[in-house]
Every structure is written in structure tokens, then in C-alpha cells.
Amino acid sequence: MTESVPTAEELLGRMISGVFNEPDPQRRGSVIAEVFTEDVVFSDAERTVTGQRALADTVSGLLAQGPGFVFVPEGPYRGVADLGMRAWRLGPPGGDPVLGGLDVAQVVDGRIAHLWTVLDG
User: Fold this and answer.
1) What is the pLDDT of residues 23-56, one digit of tens each?
2) Residue 3 to residue 5: CA distance in whole angstroms
3) Which CATH class is domain 8-119?
């Protein structure tokens, strides 16, 4: 039986639920190990970090800035070749978003190798 390789769309969905919306650092770390390459590169307007540990630390810092806020996918998934794109909004559950952006992921061998986050406006 051949195991299927996750698509960029599946990886981005798992990333939002299991990484950016996961408050428990151990569970978050397990999902990071499944979804991202060991030498993943994460880039946003403020930083570029390399490696799963650096990504985990970055996510912990981001989550601390908006405790209780959740990321919600916005609009359709878009992708071409090894790139996947998903817009999102961040805010209190059921409330108005306070921030939005677009994640762009490059997938290599079924895992995210590079993740760019572009914030709205």
C-alpha cells in the first residue's frame, strides 16, 4: 500500500489548525515535525528564521501577542506547482478580525520547506 503525499492545501490546513491555533507547545511541536521540513524557512515582514525549533519559538511568540485569538482561513485555496496560498484572518472566536494576511508555502517532498506570511495593508 502506497502512502499518499499530502497536498499543499492539506498542509496549509493542518498548519493553521495544528500549529497556529494549537496552544499546547508539545502538540504544536509534533505537528511542526509532521508538516514542515527540518530546515524550514519562515519569513514575514519582521524576520526570517530557519529550522523547526526556530519556527516553534516564533509561533509561540506570535500566539503570546494575541492570547485566545484564532486563525480562520479566508477565501479559496490557491496554488500552482509546488506553491500553495491561503488567506486568513486573526481575531477572537466569533468576533471581528484584528489582522489578516496571506500564507504562501513551498512544498518539497510532501512537507512545507518555505513559508512566507504577507500581512494585509
Assistant:
1) 999 999 999 999 999 999 999 999 999 999 999 9
2) 7
3) alpha beta
